[in-house]
Amino acid sequence: MEELLAKASQGVDLDAPDAYLHILMNLMAMIPWAALFWWNLVFVAVGALLGWWRGKLLAGVIWALVLGPIGWVVVLLTPKSAKPPPLPR
User: Fold this and answer.
1) 8 Å CB contact between 60 and 81
2) For this UniProt entry, which segments traverse the membrane (predicted)?
3) How far are the Cα atoms of 3, 4, 13, 44, 45 from residue 19, in angstroms, in the given order?
4) How far apart are CA 76 and CA 46, in angstroms?
5) How many CB atoms within 10 Å of residue 63?
6) Which stretches of the chain are DSSP H helices?
């Protein structure tokens, strides 16, 4: 933990009023944003596939976008949607 705090506060004057902002920016710079983006796309694609299989494509995408792999479980635990009624002639 001390190593993380040292990296976060590197080059920051801790007596400055905006020190928290500099520490926050240092922490955000350590996050692998590209990997998080691509993993999120994978989660949404699988959620869309599961939602399509269960007849709830939009719900699958939304749950996967919000909860990631936990959203897959939510989609799988919901009952399958019935086929829509036929159109009147």
Assistant:
1) no
2) 20-50, 57-77
3) 18, 16, 6, 37, 40
4) 12
5) 24
6) 2-8, 19-29, 33-54, 57-67, 69-77
The pLDDT assigned to 84 comes to 67
Contact 64, 53 (CB under 8 A): no
And the tokens for 85?
């009624």
> Which residue, chain included where needed, has tokens 């596939």?
49
Distance between CA atoms of residues 66 and 89, nearest Å: 40
Sign of torsion, CA 25 62 66 68? negative
